[in-house]
Design goal:
300 residues; Double-stranded beta-helix; alpha+beta; 24% strand; 3-stranded antiparallel beta sheet; 16 strands
């Protein structure tokens, strides 16, 4: 008889003051018990205030939302994202050798075009722009052209990942801080000279290892394989060992959802509550996505 449980036990969790009322203005279908939900019955080109309020509530509840069959142009894409807050422009993509030509209209909309000449490289668990003093609040991603199979994106609930750590590990990390840097991820792609030019403007930053979500109050892991360099105050070996333990929390399928893209589908995710991973299993097929990022605040 099996008596030991080796994987995580996961239960849906919402804040203590959460009003768990049904959604009457659209249909919502969860992709997993704790993260990810698909919304039907909403045209993102024309979202009224009451519908938007429900979308915002659903985002806090499910961390990533999906809308299929949307007929958005670049400007409409940016305007919908702007409903959540000011937009941000990624400072590095225009400098990277691997980034295809960026259309000039609506500069907040970043295009990721992959195919024969450029393979996917986002297949690592990460939260966006944690190398910034004010990491992104979230992002809206739209499928422009998709491969016939493959190219899915996965999201992990890093609040559930934190909850799933042993109590002694949570106590150990609750007051630690870690350094985040962009140089390893983006520096090689843009060339040494440009990286050196940008370094004074974008120095390494320090964030809490465990941040508090500013809207829900939930504690979430805030380290990732792409941008976290080391834990402040720990020797290198100890820092590496602890970070590896924390990184592995995103690997459990119980904390994840996976989305199969269709043309025109849109995803919006809460960058403060999730990490994501773009599966690079479609080369040399074409995959074109466009993303708008929403400005965030200082983690605490």
């Amino acid at each position: 008889m099996l008596t030991h449980h080796y994987g995580p036990r996961v239960a849906r969790r919402v804040p203590d003051d959460w009003v768990d009322s049904p959604y009457h203005r659209f249909t919502i279908t969860p992709l997993s018990p704790i993260i990810g939900a698909e919304i039907d019955g909403v045209d993102l080109r024309d979202v009224g205030d009451e519908v938007f309020a429900d979308i915002h509530r659903a985002l806090l509840e499910w961390k990533v939302l999906f809308f299929r069959g949307q007929d958005l142009d670049r400007h409409q894409h940016a305007e919908f994202a702007r409903r959540f807050g000011p937009l941000e422009q990624h400072p590095f993509f225009k400098h990277m050798k691997s980034t295809p030509g960026q259309p000039e209209s609506d500069p907040e909309v970043v295009r990721f075009a992959k195919g024969v000449e450029t393979a996917g490289y986002e297949n690592v668990w990460h939260s966006d722009v944690t190398w910034s003093a004010t990491p992104s609040m979230g992002a809206v991603l739209r499928a422009v052209e998709i491969p016939p199979v493959g190219g899915d994106t996965l999201w992990a609930d890093i609040g559930a990942a934190y909850d799933g750590l042993p109590a002694d590990v949570r106590a150990r990390i609750d007051h630690l801080h870690a350094e985040h840097d962009w140089m390893h991820a983006f520096g090689a792609s843009m060339g040494a000279d440009r990286a050196a030019m940008l370094r004074p403007t974008f120095p390494a930053v320090v964030h809490p290892v465990v941040r508090t979500h500013p809207e829900t109050g939930r504690r979430t892991l805030f380290v990732n394989r792409s941008f976290t360099k080391h834990i402040v105050g720990l020797e290198a070996a100890e820092s590496d060992e602890l970070l590896d333990t924390l990184y592995r929390q995103s690997d459990f399928p119980e904390y994840q959802c996976r989305f199969r893209w269709t043309a025109g589908a849109v995803a919006i995710w809460d960058n403060r509550a999730t990490q994501h991973y773009a599966a690079s299993d479609y080369y040399p097929q074409v995959r074109v996505m466009e993303r708008v990022s929403i400005a965030g605040d200082v983690p605490f």
